[in-house]
Amino acid sequence: MGIPNQGYRRDLNLAETTSDRTALANLGGAGIAEDLDKLQNNLKNTSKKSFHTITDGYFDFADDINVGITSLRCIATKVYGTTGLVDGVNITAHVDRSYLLRIGDLIKIQNVTGTGKFTDGQGNLTGTDTSVGVDIFNGEFALTTINDDENEFTAVRTGFSTSIRDQNVSGSNLVIRGNDVFTYTNDDKVTFDRNVNIKVNDGSTDITDVNFVQGTEYYICDSDGLEKFKISTTPSYSESGTNPVEIKTGNSDSGYTGLTTTVSPNSFNFIRFEPVEQGNLINFIEPDIFDEGFSFGSGTFSDQLDGIQNNNESSKYFIGKKYKGTTNTVSSDFIKTEGTISMSDPKQKMNAANIVTSYDSGSGMFIEGTRAFSTDNNPWTDTGANKLETEADHVSIGELYFGNHSDGPVITGSGFDGTHAPDTLTGVKSVTAGTIAPTDFTYKIPVRIENTDGNVETYYLLLARNTENTSTLP
Q: Which residue has the higher pLDDT, 185 or 332?
């Protein structure tokens, strides 16, 4: 028992009072024990977030994703509507990957076709096939429950009173909405709830093959604070700084095209460590204000958060309209310019055989899906037969790169015999002798040829239309 007017001896560790709560109240004031109850074990706080998708090397949560549906059923029941209890159904969708959602999150079921089977609400068949499920299942719903495996979602719909099982799900999917209201910020410590492998393949080689190990601590980096981030093996405050795990994309230095990204498994959760430490508690203490003109803003705390959210959304909108080198910029605005527009490719990312006509490959400026300067000045058309054709009378080519000898152009023929159509390039041969009138040639194309040693020489391909005078050509 504590001695009056003496307090507690440090070496006895509060042994003088049999009740810890009483001892704490004596030292810290009434109610301190209850406060400590709330803080106990807060160093072990964690939260979970399911993997969404990967975009441009980032773990991205902005866009909707489609998840395959493996089964659909509904059970007729009474549900609460705007006028009280009304007819409705409980819809259950089983999907092909786990995803952690919160109660109330919106999900959308789409592309449900065909028939299901009538049941009595207990799963027993009671009649023939029915197509009513198409009207019941297609739609957007608020999530009401989710199972422990996070792959079975239920929702409620009013206006129907039919129980169905074994609904045809071929071609159907469940849409999980993108989410930009959560925040993973730089240096947040995370781990994975299982081992995860990510591969990026360029058609023949895995240019990325990384493994994230369950239980290993990683750190968030390059976060925009809203919807995407990268993973680092070290925090920014370490001596070496961050060490981001690189997931290569078409924007990587080698200008990769035709990439396939595989995440195995594609169902896993990030686990973020969220301890409550002294600094977090100190942040709740309002500091003293020495400048009478200073304030923490007007309105309630909720009002201020709404204002921050509005500012973030406005900034995001205008950033999306501004040109940037890290992602695509799409605009419906009219563009007026005086002078010239110069397109540069300093890292030679455009040197690929399919780059001229492939919208998804490489960087560039596109007008309504067509690469700029590929129609007005260089009107080349992809014929679908591994070649480009043009019907222009005057064609300008800055530089057309054909890759290597196996991907490059092959021109064959036995000579200018005058039997081919005017728009066909045929009969190319090397001229080593004979008298040739320069006026017989009407066009020439410079061709730079590189040998296997890397030496480059420029030759000229001399051209003439078949309808023109070619009498002196051999």
A: 185
